[in-house]
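Lecture notes, structural biology module. Today: joint structure prediction for complexes of two components.
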Amino acid sequence: MSLQLPVQTVSRLCLIYRVLLGMDRETVLSSSKLGKLVNIPAHTIRKDLSVAGKLKSSNAGYKAGELLDFINGLFKFDAPLRVCVAGIGLLGSSFIKNPVQEGGQFIIVAGFDTNINKIEVMKSDVPLYPAYEMADRIRELKIDLGIIAVPAQAAEITMQRMKEGGIKGILNFSPAILGDKDIAVRNVHFAEELRFLTAMIPDLEKGD
Amino acid sequence: MSLQLPVQTVSRLCLIYRVLLGMDRETVLSSSKLGKLVNIPAHTIRKDLSVAGKLKSSNAGYKAGELLDFINGLFKFDAPLRVCVAGIGLLGSSFIKNPVQEGGQFIIVAGFDTNINKIEVMKSDVPLYPAYEMADRIRELKIDLGIIAVPAQAAEITMQRMKEGGIKGILNFSPAILGDKDIAVRNVHFAEELRFLTAMIPDLEKGD
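The predicted structure, tokenised, for the full assembly:
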């Protein structure tokens, strides 16, 4: 990314991109129509797009295809990236068996687990390797991104192995909070998502 | 929640709460030490806490236990909530078999699936029911929150069934974007998380 956009703007542009992916390129969208589709106020969308740079728009609104190309131009979302999954429990397996290939961008090319027996027994179209081979395999297979789906106590070493292999970004689903100055790390924590949801419910009766 | 706090503040307080849960109550934390633990600038933390209300603090910092109680007082995170899971594929099963019970707040009390055979065959400590019973079971079991882990095309009807049962909040993992004026909905989309991660990597080589 050449522009230094605010994190929240990037986050909203990602959401808009997702909605546009499923649309006909010729569809014309006003910012208020687009806003309704993504649950974001129209003025925020207009502000994000103006912060992100120039975009041709008529009074009628944005053409879906042009908006898609514009966001693509910022982030190059149509370039395929190679992804690996560390930890092939139920969650990790769900990524390996139902690959997140929306838009063809993310290609799962390897899975890792410390349990050698599991690796040998599990049926998978994606090749599976022992965890200790992680750094070497990441280099060899030119893997860009890693998904961490291991228990909390194994999260840090998994991140270090990925980093040693030269990975650029990590999506962490373990309960540990990971962070690194050299690579992009995104922590997704299920209990916290539920807790956030709870905090947003105004009239939830909690025994009072 | 009685206060109308900014969404980002709520989100950060949730993260701080998670870190505090794992600490000794007597630990004293400066805002910069706390900031390092959660990857948030110290001044943002101080601002969030002042927006959220008064909090006793010494010059040395905050006591972990007092900060935990303070956030609890805002959101009542220690009150147990009853949760159901719709869709027991690999992802849904991961919630049922490894319950998100951090802090004892979330209790998974039911799973639902349209595949009756799967319900009958699957071994689970959590009772499983056919999807068409969802609204009735949610009422009967007094379920507060729902996790949606069904395919995109089944997401909307699942939300409607949950709503009919009186659910207060939904955590949606299906690729569909859900929203409702009456209930709190949080969409978590894996491809989008990866895409966001990609957008945050400054020097990712993407064939240029």
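Point to remember: The CA atoms of residues 23 and 196 of chain B lie 31 Å apart.
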